[in-house]
Amino acid sequence: MTTTTTTTPTDPAARHAETTRCDPHTHGAELPRWQHGRVAWFDAEKGFGFLTPDIGPAVFVEHRVIEVPGYRTLVAGQPVVFTATDTPRGPDATRVVPYLRTSTSTPPRPCQARGQTGRKRRYRPRCRQQAA
């Protein structure tokens, strides 16, 4: 007569892995996919608007899913990255991260700001006293 005993792992992570048994073929499909897009319009008073992704239909966005500190709002034309989920009404954004830099201008090169050599110019006070 043989008896088999099963032991449960004492490590919480090992115990969680033992009880959840993820299928590797379906588990990866559940991860959110980040998309790039721009803000089509956003009404700050009402707290919602729409995003225009690079590929696909327009995505509804609410202020509560915008991940910025402070007042959560977006500006039309602002570039964003976001995750979305399909709903019966259409795609809804679940997380929105706006790019902080909204302008496309580049800062001046150091040699343009300090002269052609790139070195600081010495300040020479010019005190000329005129004879009276």
UniProtKB/TrEMBL annotation:
Residues 13-29 have a biased composition (Basic and acidic residues). SMART domains: CSP. It comes from the Bacteria. Residues 34-98 form the CSD domain. One of its GO terms (molecular function) is nucleic acid binding. SUPFAM superfamilies: Nucleic acid-binding proteins. Gene3D superfamilies: Nucleic acid-binding proteins. Residues 1-10 have a biased composition (Low complexity). InterPro entries: CSD (IPR011129), CSP_DNA-bd (IPR002059), NA-bd_OB-fold (IPR012340). Residues 117-132 have a biased composition (Basic residues). Residues 1-29, 101-132 are annotated as: Disordered. This is Cold shock CspA family protein.
